[in-house]
Amino acid sequence: MAYEISEQKKVGIGLVGFGILFSFLGIILFFDRGLLALGNILWLAGVALLLGWRSTLQLFTDRRNYKGSVSFLLGMFLIFVRWPIAVDFGHLLRYFSIRFRYLDGCCSISYTDS
């Protein structure tokens, strides 16, 4: 095999997959807060294992990603406090953060000469 995946990255891929699965099940089961919170935790832990702890911290503290980071963390907080109205608002904030964090970055790729 040309490229081997380390055990840590395999676990990270599994955690991201289970995080997406639990989030999807939480949405299908009428915004079940327990499944959504578990999905958030698993997804975040999986991303940290895939990228590494330092890269994950840089992803959330980068100045260009502050809108997405703030809305993602605020959305997670609102889901964890389990207020009925805030849970729906928390989901909207999380999906809003995906738009700022990932979709803005993929359309503005710049190349630098080094």
UniProtKB/TrEMBL annotation:
Keyword Chloroplast found: no
Primary residence: Golgi
Signal peptide annotation: none
GO terms of biological process kind: endoplasmic reticulum to Golgi vesicle-mediated transport; retrograde transport, endosome to Golgi
Location in or out of the cell: Golgi apparatus membrane
Pfam families in the record: Got1 (PF04178)
GO CC list: cytosol; Golgi membrane
Membrane topology, record value: Multi-pass membrane protein
UniProtKB keywords: Golgi apparatus, Membrane, Transmembrane, Transmembrane helix
Identification of the protein by name: Vesicle transport protein GOT1-like isoform X2
Origin species: Coffea arabica
